[in-house]
Structure formats: structure tokens, C-alpha cells
Design a protein that fits this description.
Oligomer: heterodimer
Radius of gyration of chain B: 16 Å
CATH class of chain A: Alpha Beta
Number of helices of chain B: 5
Strand order of the largest sheet of chain B: 2-1-3-4
Order of helices and strands of chain A: HEEHHEEHEEHH
CATH architecture of chain A: 2-Layer Sandwich
Strand order of the largest sheet of chain A: 3-4-2-1-5-6
Largest sheet of chain A: 6 strands, mixed
Structural class of chain B: alpha+beta
Shape of chain A: globular
Number of strands of chain B: 4
Strand content of chain B: 5-15%
Largest sheet of chain B: 4 strands, mixed
Distance between the termini of chain A: 16 Å
Number of strands of chain A: 6
Strand content of chain A: 15-25%
Structural class of chain A: alpha+beta
CATH topology of chain A: Heat Shock Protein 90
Chain lengths: 183, 128
């Protein structure tokens, strides 16, 4: 994946498949620690310890079309290539959380990329799902975006209405750009 | 700067349209967004469909995603479901191809044959 935001788009699909009702996407840039961390946390059905143990192997997948699954393994490898780390925890019936830490200044760190496009792709495909995005840069006030809050304002107008989609993209873009994360 | 206040205005403006949309007779554009599709460039393809459908004012179409469709080497793949017609599968998609699919297929009902899986695979079989 050429952008970290593409990993987010890819891995969100796991949460949707796990029948989650909410996905938190937490992105934090810390210049002092020289890290960019991405946490994905859902309330899906979770994974049994046996499956979890092997989930970072490319030969573990729930899909039936093929025997390989590269989503989590590539995310982990990309983090480790920068000198960072990856960890995942999951509990059946509770949900899954994974965090990848990337070394910000590493030449091997892919750019964060187009997060607004990732959010729009997710929302357009799953307009009733609860997505929560938080973007933190150092000790600035974080930028937060929450589909449930937006839906409350919109009432009966769906999140995938074209005008709403344009607004969402612009709102996230402006909000994230304003923090000058440089990632 | 965009603010939550804009949303209230959008709500007022689009409420009538929404009532129309609720009985969408349903064109569906399904973009393959498994790991394979995403790394092949599915996200810009999806964004372009959303944008072009808005630009052309296609009212009864929805764009959505699915996981791996199964022919990863031909990603990005897009399936188009038109009411009363057979499903059409487009392969090796990119944002430049989207305008033709929306104009010719979604609006005028004629699939863009050169972009379909059947056409591309036949060409490959002939070594082209």
C-alpha cells in the first residue's frame, strides 16, 4: 500500500465483516517522539485466541475465495520497516483493537495520504455505520469527526446524499490540514 | 471553512430529493475493495464514480463497495447492476474510464464493451 490511509480503508473492511456497529480510527502524530500511530478499534465479534495468534500471518484469513489474507500482515510489516511496532488484541464478543506505530522520520514510512477519500469511500458504502475519526497532532486540540453526530444534524437525509458527501470530504480535509501534521 | 451549520442548510435543501431517493429504482455500482482492489487503485475509481454521478445528476444510483471479487489480477474491478439488465463487470478500471461508464452505461443503458471482463479476457487470449 502506498499510503497509510489505504491500510485504514482496507482494514475497516475487517470490522464491517465482523459485524461491528462502530469503528474508531485514531491517528496521532507526535513529533517529539517521532511517531505516527494508527489505532483501529471496533466492537465486532472479535477473534478467538487461536485465530488471533496467527492473524498476522498471510496464510490466515476468513475469506473463502482464497487461502491468503494480506491486510493485517502488510500493515504490520510496513510499521516494522520504519522501526516501529504493531500490536493487536481481540476478545470474542467484545471487539478488536490494533495499533501500528510508524517512525515519523523514517524514509520507509509511507505518507498518511488521502484520509478524506478513505472516509468518504467508507461512508458512501456504509452510510448507516458509526465511524469515528480522531486526528491528533502533538498537543494541539484534536480534530474529530463522527458520523453519528453528523447524522443527528441531518435527520432523515442520508450520509451518502451527494451534497453531504462533498461536505464530509471538505470538512475532514480542512480539519486535518488545519493541524499541520506534516504526515 | 466548512461547519456543522452548513449541514443544516443541506438538510433543508435536500429533504425533497431524499424522498425521491428512497424509492430509488436502483442502479448499483459496486467497487471491489479487498486488499487487492485497494492496492490496485480502487479508491480513486470509487471517488470518481461518486463525483461523476453527482456531476451528471444521476439520481437513482448508489455507489458501494465489496470485498475481493476473485480475479485480483484484473483489479480494480467494478460491477454495475442496472434494473432489468444483466450485471456487467468492468476490469482494470481507472478514474479516466469512469466518465464513459457513467455516460454510456448508467445514463444511456449501453455497457462500454471494451472495458468489460469478457472483452479484456478475449483480447488476452489472443495475446494482445
Amino acid at each position: 500500500m502506498r499510503e497509510l490511509s489505504l491500510h485504514v480503508l482496507d482494514l475497516a473492511q475487517n470490522s464491517l465483516t465482523a459485524n461491528a456497529s462502530r469503528l474508531d480510527i485514531l491517528i496521532a502524530v507526535d513529533h517529539k517522539a517521532d511517531t505516527l500511530s494508527i489505532t483501529l478499534r471496533d466492537d465486532g465479534k472479535g477473534m478467538a485466541p487461536e485465530f488471533l495468534k496467527n492473524v498476522t500471518s498471510p496464510f490466515t484469513t476468513t475469506r473463502t475465495t482464497r487461502k491468503v489474507g494480506l491486510g493485517i500482515p502488510m500493515f504490520k510489516v510496513n510499521a516494522e520497516l520504519t522501526g516501529g511496532s504493531f500490536d493487536i488484541e481481540s476478545k470474542v464478543g467484545v471487539g478488536t483493537r490494533m495499533t501500528a506505530v510508524f517512525i515519523l522520520s523514517s524514509i520507509d514510512r509511507p505518507p498518511l495520504g488521502d484520509m478524506p477519500a478513505t472516509m468518504v469511500s467508507l461512508i458512501v458504502s456504509n452510510p448507516k455505520f458509526h465511524f469515528h475519526l480522531e486526528y491528533t497532532v502533538d498537543d494541539q486540540e484534536p480534530f474529530a469527526f463522527d458520523t453519528e453526530e453528523i447524522q443527528a444534524v441531518l435527520g432523515p437525509v442520508p450520509l451518502d446524499a451527494p451534497e453531504v458527501v462533498s461536505w464530509i470530504e471538505g470538512y475532514i480535509r480542512e480539519g486535518m490540514d488545519a493541524l499541520h501534521g506534516g504526515a | 471553512m466548512k461547519s456543522i451549520k452548513d449541514l443544516e442548510a443541506i438538510r433543508q435543501r435536500t429533504l425533497d430529493e431524499v424522498n425521491l431517493r428512497n424509492d430509488r429504482h436502483g442502479i448499483r455500482v459496486v467497487v471491489g475493495m479487498g486488499t487487492c482492489g485497494i492496492s490496485a487503485g480502487a479508491r480513486p475509481v470509487m471517488m470518481e464514480f461518486v463525483e461523476e454521478i453527482k456531476r451528471r445528476g444521476v439520481k437513482d444510483a448508489m455507489v458501494t463497495q465489496t470485498g475481493c471479487i476473485g480475479v485480483c489480477r484484473l483489479e480494480p474491478m467494478v460491477e454495475v447492476y442496472m434494473p432489468g439488465q444483466e450485471k456487467v463487470t468492468y476490469v482494470l478500471m481507472n478514474p479516466e474510464k469512469v466518465a464513459r461508464v457513467v455516460g454510456e452505461h448508467l445514463i444511456n443503458g449501453r455497457p462500454v464493451t471494451e472495458y468489460t471482463i469478457g472483452y479484456v479476457e478475449a483480447q488476452e487470449a489472443q495475446g494482445k
